[in-house]
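Still learning. Show one?

>
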Amino acid sequence: MKRTFSTLSVAMLAILVLMMAGRARSLSAATPAEVAVKIDNFVFSPNTVTIAAGSTVRWTNHDDIPHNVVSDDKSFKSKVLDTDEVFTYTFTKPGTYSYFCGLHPKMTGKIVVQ
């Protein structure tokens, strides 16, 4: 009886370890993605986004007035976005990218690329 319990415990532990290893592998394999940032009520939401290099950020203006998206370092800039218009940018290099609305400079956000 003791031996059977011991064997079952080792088998269950091995299965658990294999499942965790597979999950960790699948999380790191799915690195590039598309992330949504909503523009609404004079706010970028979420305000800070952390993504993997190669990921795309999609900003959508849900506000009733126009906005745009301009990086502090001028590496990207959208046209003026009317209600429900979209701007996308793919981040290929790691770093921190601060941005703002050129029409309403108090609106700011940050993209952290790992």
